Sequence to fold (323 residues):
Amino acid sequence: MNLNEKNTNLKIAQPDVQLTLEELRDRLTAQNYIVDEELLVTLFVSLKLGRPLLIEGEAGVGKTEVAKAMAAALGRELVRLQCYEGLDESKALYEWNYQKQLLAIQVNMNQERAVGAGSCEGRKSSDEMTAELFSENYLLERPLLKSIRSEEPVVLLIDEIDKSDEEFEAFLLELLSEMQVTIPELGTVKAQSMPFVVLTSNHVRPLSAALRRRCAYLYIDYPSVEKEVNIITSRLPEIENQLARQVAETVRQIRQNERLTRKPSIAEAIDWAAALMALGVKKIDRKGLTDTMGFLLKNNQDMDAVLQDDEIIDEKPGRRSAK
Fold:
């Protein structure tokens, strides 16, 4: 059966396009998500136009959180496709249930033996069997197919698209431009509802102009101190504002250290603040930094670089011994 047959008269549902800008702001705020004006407007217009949104930025700036926050704010399911080198259609779009197919073949062969080789009663011809094996009953949905076949609109997160191969990126173009995909055995599958698509990239490799043309674009940088204070206090309501500010200011200084192999993310800044709270720290000193640094930095080289930085905390830095 064609996957579109049962939805011949179904119009693509876009129940959220009637939202106003302020309503979207209120919904995101209700999820404790701190949104600035540029991000809010870009999300709002992309949602209104049904346009995929490509978000680029350093690892850890909160690109994935945008999709999570939008899913929660819109009351939609979040469908996530994590990209990696070698990702292909069988992992991203669909796969056939080979075990179920083999079982069906075995059942048909057993029926044939039971009634005799010369009888057609109770068994299927080879053409009928092939048609059945490659029908919807044996189809396993993967994230891309699931997102467009869902009767209720979802948020589709295509995370770290730059880690996938160029061939997979080219494969995505049909989905992003036409909201449909092609399955050789079944034909073209058109969207039953309009997913809100978010793609993220960390600049591992350049993305094609064709992909960029099909998307709205947003670049996210590390937040300002004020915004990071707001993020920390929204996630840790019991934190004192003085400590939240000192965490944000210290993390900003640390990110400016050119010797770091990886800058701490927003999530790691929140983890660090929680660790300081757990120890009852009211003001960050050198000891507090050293004792809890493992919640902020995740390798010894970066820890050494920070402890040797005279501008981080107004105390003479010590050197962390390599292990």
